[in-house]
Amino acid sequence: MFKNIRQLTPFSLMLLSISFIMSISQSTMTTAYPILMRNFNVSATTVQWLTTGFMVAMTLVMPLSPWLLDNVHLKPLLNSIVAIFLIGTAIAMLSPNFLGIIVGRLLEGMAVGALFPTFQSVIMENTTKGQRGLTMGVVGLVMGSALAVGPIISGVILQWVSWRALFALFFFTLLILIIAFQHLIKNTHSINKSNFDWLSAITLVGFGGVLYTIASLPSTGFNLTSCFILIISILLLLVFIVRQQKQSQPFLNLTVFKYQGFLPGLILTGISYSGLIIATVLMPLFYQRVFYLSPLWSGLLMVPAAIFLSQLNPRAGRLLNQIGLKKLVYIGMSMMIMGYSLLALAGTTSWFYGLVAAMLLEGGNAFVMMPSVTAANNALPKNLVSHGTALITTMRQVIGASSVVVATILLTFFNEHVSVGQSLTQTSGWFIIVPVIGFLLATRLQSHSQQQI
């Protein structure tokens, strides 16, 4: 793993370091929910907005990243993104009330939403097609490991210190990194200035509306209000799509869908991300509610899966050039099918089976997510890479959020009829459908000799 990391340029390593710290913030708050509910006397529905609001803010900003890259030099852009994250973190850390934490999380989400597609686009633009597989494998290591270790870090910190220490950790670590790395930031992306299209920006609210509706379903159900929000959001997105096709320099250049190989890569990325994020949702529930382990041990038992993921990501990136995306997807989806099957059949038998299942789910993600991102963007000319990356990261968030909602709905439904353990195993059984769809989609991919990788 470290050998693969050393092959990257200092500039790429700097981007990955900053992205890793900001990525961890995605998955740390769920462990702190019970503490925050007690401290601020808020309900489970309200506290969930720390994650839901974060995801909505991310999704709203992601489609703007190509325009930001084309109109703002990378150094001031990156510094601004980190500054927004630091401001949000400071507000959340020092806030005397829950509303302040929500505001801080929204600012953090906006910063992460701008950073993810930006840093992936920049790294890909500065890497030859032959090296992209390995490089994006290391990017996958950072993204996947950060999501996986978030609950681990928060579990350890909350065992002994205040929840405010979580935000303090992000704040001071990121502040030190951005100051230390100033000399490494290079303006490598070509500036191609265009006017900011305010109408397109307003219609982007549709992405947030769709994600809000999806994320709110478990708590509010599909009522008249959510139905109205969803319809308005879809109409806004339709206006956005039509407008992008008429603009000479659109926010998102939708011609990326005309390139063979892009759409399958986008869908496969979302499916594999679903497996990763569902593992981080289901496994703590298995450990804590079936085997009655503490949050600390629940977090520590996720370590083997995180290590397995970090070891496989660079290897999968290298294999992309050797055996092609199709075979990698077969391997990854097969591992995810086995992971869900193990949870469905033996999840309540021993925590050890849960540990192995988590390793299979996260390991399967390594063989699919970043190789799919790489293959999808390799099908595009260089000037469209930032647009392709923005679309992939946006849709990955929507698919990931949808998966969490489906899991929550299934768990709630099964809990009304069977025990907690059985509801978890049955939910796992239903999620076998997701990698099966990915496996079937892989049959439609071209052979290795025909892929543009």
Automatic annotation (TrEMBL):
UniProt GO MF annotations: transmembrane transporter activity
> Which UniProt keywords are given for this protein, alphabetically ordered?
Membrane, Transmembrane, Transmembrane helix, Transport
Where does the chain cross the membrane?
A: 48-69, 76-95, 101-122, 134-157, 163-184, 196-215, 221-242, 262-284, 290-308, 397-415, 427-445
Keyword Transmembrane annotated: yes
Q: Where is the Major facilitator superfamily (MFS) profile domain?
A: 11-450
This protein's name: MFS transporter
Topology with regard to the membrane? Multi-pass membrane protein
Where can this protein be found?
Cell membrane
Q: Which InterPro entries match?
A: MFS, MFS_dom, MFS_trans_sf
The protein's matches in PANTHER family, at most eight in alphabetical order, are given as: MAJOR FACILITATOR SUPERFAMILY (MFS) PROFILE DOMAIN-CONTAINING PROTEIN, MAJOR FACILITATOR SUPERFAMILY MULTIDRUG TRANSPORTER MFSC
Going by the entry's taxonomy, the superkingdom of the source organism is recorded as: Bacteria
Which residues are in coiled coils?
none
Q: GO CC terms for this protein? A: plasma membrane
Entry annotated with the keyword Transport: yes
